[in-house]
Amino acid sequence: MNPTRLFEIPYYQLEQGPLAASIGGKHIKGHNYSYSTEEFIKLANQVSLGLLQMGVKPGDKIALISHNNRPEWNIMDIGMAQIGVINVPIYPTISPKEYVYIFNDASIKYCFLGHGDLLEKVQKAHPSIPSLQAIFTFDKVDGQKDGKGNEVHHWETIHTDGDLTPVEKIKNSIKPEDLATLIYTSGTTGNPKGVMLSHNNILSNIRSVGPLVPIERGDIALSFLPLCHVFERVVTYAYMYLGASIVYAQSIDTLGESLKEVRPHFFTTVPRLLEKVYEKIVTKAKEGGGLKQKIFFWAEGMTADYAYDFKPSGFASVKWGLADKIVFSKVRDNLGGRVKGILTGAAACPRKMAQFFSAIGIPVREGYGMTETSPAIAVSGYKPNLALLGTVGPVIPDVTVRIDVNETAYGPDAGEIMLKGPNVMMGYYNKPEKTAEVFTEDGWFLTGDVGKLIRKNGVDFLKITDRKKELLKTSGGKYVAPAPIEGIFREDFLVEQVMVIGDNKKFVSALILPAMDTLEEWCKKNGVSTSSKDAMLKDKKVLAYYEKLVKKLNPNFSKVEQIKKFELVAGPWDVNSGHLTPTMKLKRRVILAECKELIEDIYNV
């Protein structure tokens, strides 16, 4: 059996070798639970029958929303897919107003929710959503009513046993090129767009990327990135396809505990989480003081020159062996002790993070893609000569990339990345004009990202230089890519976020959001008052620290890219405050509008 439709993946796992714990995790209430391959399929069939008895038809759309990843989400997903129902996963952090827009745009018929404030938000939005017939919850709630006064039911109330003939009839009618899911982009500007992905879009990605990752049947994969995002969603299908047991962390906040308890072989992450893990490791070493601190930084310093496929020899191998025994092995143990690989995506991975973790025996590789491309376009491999620092790896099989070179705007050999392949979306739902904007007349998909191809050892590696829409153009006509500058600044422990500004201005400047908890500790050690955030950010010693940091990092950039002035902001900048998208990207227009006066002060010279 070779799956051509998403709902066939659990059956493929059953055929290749059923797992006693195919999917599970730690419930938000703290107890562990899991489902075997057979149990997973049985529950998915019960969902399919239950939905059919409710009158749901192929093409209807159901929303799934949860703060944390959970097996119920996947069971619903497969149960819906095999009767042609379209899964519309929605970010839990968006506002009721955004729920109203998405639910109405997609004509959502039913909604299944996780814990927390989700029920309250959908209840508030419900009266403005004519298509929404009922709300179900994954956790039992008593006496709750939906936004139209009807009872809210537990998801198990739809589970139905019986003759599967109606389900099989629909399954047999579903084609690989049929719509499988509608994923709304996070919307850095304007209303989100519904990306239409077919079964074949996603499965083509799984077939291309699967052989690149070091996962074997029976391995354990830890999952904590949101399933509503295409990256983790497709990764979980790949885990099922490859025969790995999926374990969901209770939450990102308990990730450290999950790593030690689950001891995964593989997981995906975003760069910022890697940075936080690294910061904790370094902070712990500093707290040890004395000889312990010196030994750690001796070993850590060796990783600065690491490159993929590096193998020490001679006296260097003795030093690396000693560093591994004293330092690196202990770091690996803190991440469970048997991680064979980490794949990072959704944002650029700082070179230092890829070097450090890979050097200590936890291979970190970077991938690049978009919701519109299901998602992978390029992925760094774990085998020799398939990864190159500073790039996102080779373009995946069956996908063709073309660079629309514009050296005047973007530099030598660089331009917008364009592609063709079976992973490219069907289009934007209800928005044919927006769909037309991202395709050339001869069918190339326009990513909006700028990059170049770098050849090494006979392999073309894709390097991303920036988002086309985020490039700054100074009043002197010089282009500046903010992302690489911001990435280097975020490597400092006292920097949480930074946004480079300077569009149509004489010089480049920055808004710097300090890592407030770390800064508070720094202030206590350096005799600075911590009575308030504002007091800390205006203190001369604090300002001197960031001035010194800017001077230290500026030589990494060309003269036009260097930060001439900066302002410290208290924040927070996070998803809940509306400054970051759910995938941790800066909402630049929001920040520019909010910090208008600060920016005017910078340029009021």
From TrEMBL:
Signal sequence bounds: none
Assigned GO CC terms: membrane
Domain AMP-dependent synthetase/ligase residues, every copy: 31-429
Domain of life the protein comes from: Bacteria
Transmembrane portions of the chain: none
Record bears the keyword Acetylation: no
Recorded coiled-coil stretches: none
Keywords noted in UniProt: Fatty acid metabolism, Ligase, Lipid metabolism
Pfam families (UniProt xref): AMP-binding, AMP-binding_C_3
SUPFAM superfamilies attached to this UniProt entry: Acetyl-CoA synthetase-like
Gene Ontology terms for molecular function: long-chain fatty acid-CoA ligase activity
PANTHER family reported for this sequence: AMP-DEPENDENT SYNTHETASE_LIGASE DOMAIN-CONTAINING PROTEIN, LONG-CHAIN-FATTY-ACID--COA LIGASE
Name the UniProt record assigns to this protein: Long chain fatty-acid CoA ligase
